[in-house]
């Protein structure tokens, strides 16, 4: 289909609670999913939520083969997840670096649950249910937050870790050398 413009933080559409998808296996839903996948791949994203391209519905896509934006992370199979529900399986949380196509150029450390079960449907209405940990769990929590109008900076507890990617990387490099 096509690569869409990604809305950026500050756009009120990103702050809305998205609507439940009432019907699966429609042409409109297939088109939305394809636009999300095309846009995510074009931007090297690990995930994308429908509100980020201006569609206020509970649809996210995520997945990662080899991603230059996240070179050290595990692979995640390409997934379309609609009307997702997240259940945490432990209270344990961990800080990890996140970025977002709606907050370009920036990174920050965000606390997320490390062990979750998520469920939902694909675009054809097939049920999906998975138990996941660590980076996979982080990506799903980040994407599903978009459906509730939440961007990762709102989840941060230490704003001193928030900064521009190039500067953060340079600072990390300098730390290693010293
Ligand atoms: Ni995001």
Main features:
globular; 178 residues; alpha+beta; Peptide Deformylase
Topology:
Layout: H1 27-42, E1 47-49, E2 59-64, E3 76-88, E4 93-98, E5 106-113, E6 115-121, E7 127-133, H2 134-146, E8 163-164, H3 165-177
Antiparallel strand pairs: 1-2, 2-3, 3-6, 4-5, 5-8, 6-7
Nickel (II) ion binds near residues 100 and 102.
Radius of gyration over C-alpha positions, nearest whole angstrom: 16 Å
Largest sheet: 5 strands, antiparallel
Which molecules are bound in this entry?
nickel (II) ion
In CATH, the architecture of the domain at 12-93 and 114-153 is Alpha-Beta Complex
Q: Which class of secondary structure composition applies to the elements?
A: alpha+beta
CATH topology description of the domain at 12-93 and 114-153? Peptide Deformylase
- Return the CATH class of the domain at 12-93 and 114-153: Alpha Beta
Helical fraction: 10-25%
- Report strand order across the widest sheet: 1-2-3-6-7
Query: Count of helices?
Result: 3
Tally of extended strands?
A: 8
- What is the molecular shape? globular
At the fourth level of CATH, the homologous superfamily of the domain at 12-93 and 114-153 is Peptide deformylase
Helices and strands, in N-to-C order? Answer: HEEEEEEEHEH
Let me know the average pLDDT.
Answer: 94
Task: Kindly estimate the percentage of residues that lie in beta strands according to DSSP.
Answer: 25-35%
Any low-confidence stretches, pLDDT <50, length ≥5?
A: none
Distance between the termini: 49 Å
